[in-house]
Amino acid sequence: MEMTGKITQVLPEKSGTSARGPWRKQEYVIELPGDFPKQVCFMLWGDRIDQFAIREGQELTVSFDLESREYNGRWYTDVKAWRVAPANADDSGSAGLGDNEPPPYDDEPPF
Predict the structure, then answer these.
(1) pLDDT tens for residues 12-66?
(2) Rounded to whole angstroms, how far apart are CA atoms 57 and 47?
(3) Which has the closest alpha carbon to 88: 2, 1, 4?
């Protein structure tokens, strides 16, 4: 899935240690254009935080996966980005800031 919009917030990075070792994640809020603009919070994990270096005000196209999981009877949904590119990048992917395929997510914190 993809969404294109303007980054309106860069939230503080979070980190910790799980049974699989240290982890890092950072969340961002992107505003999707339209008559009734929507805001979506998405996240990056690990080295992708540094690789994409997202800043407020950037117009970006974000490729992402949706994932839901249950914990103690409640459901939580994550929007996990795996590719970020400038909004005006061509479809060839040459201007992209990430890989064309999503990586496996095995650096999640324990929940």
Answers:
(1) 999 999 999 999 999 999 999 999 999 999 999 999 999 999 999 999 999 999 9
(2) 22
(3) 4
Strands 38-45 and 2-10: unpaired
DSSP letter for 100, please. Answer: S
Query: What CATH number is given for 2-86 in this structure?
Result: 2.40.50.140
pTM of the complete model? 0.77
Task: Please state the φ and ψ torsions of residue 23, each to the nearest 5 degrees.
Answer: -140, 155
Q: What residue spans define the domains of the chain?
A: 2-86
- Collapsing DSSP to helix, strand or coil, 90 comes out as coil
Which residue, among 31, 48, 27, has the nearest Cα to 40 in the 3D structure?
31
What is the DSSP secondary-structure string of 10-69?
EPPPEEEEETTEEEEEEEEEEEEPSSS-EEEEEEEETTHHHHH---TT-EEEEEEEEEEE
